[in-house]
Amino acid sequence: MSHPVKLTRLAEADIAQAFDWYEGKKGHLGFEFIEQVEQAIRGISEHPLSHRKVIDDARRCNVERFPYGVWYRVEPDKSIVIACLHHKRNPKLARARAKRGPRL
Q: How far is 5 from 77, CA to CA, in rounded Å?
């Protein structure tokens, strides 16, 4: 049984920004990025506790083939994706979102 996954507006904006960047680099690469993010989210849905806590109770699932992590929290009835950030982004951004709590 899968655990529902919801994305915050900020996480959706992160994904859209990365999509635009990859599409600008090479045609269809943005769509490949989206496919890999969706695969990561499916993995979170199927096994929400499989990734360790990184900041407070926020966990990070790495995106295959791309240097991004999907940051999320596990709640009793769902998981909430709070960010999708490049690994080289300042970790203070992930920390701020983890401490702020999800805003759907």
A: 9
Domain around 82: 5-99
CATH number where 78 lies? 3.30.2310.20
Q: Please give the Cα distance from 97 to 101 (Å, whole number).
A: 6
The residues with which 60 forms a beta bridge, in sequence order, are 71
Could you give the strand order of the β-sheet that contains 79-86, starting from the edge strand earlier in sequence? 5-7, 79-86, 68-74, 58-62, 53-55
The structural domain count of the chain equals 1
Instruction: Indicate whether this model's pTM tops 0.85.
Output: yes
Instruction: Give the mean pLDDT of the chain.
Output: 92
Q: Who wins on pLDDT, 61 or 97?
A: 61
CB atoms within 10 A of CB 76: 5
Could you give the CA distance from residue 60 to residue 81 in angstroms, rounded to a whole number? 9
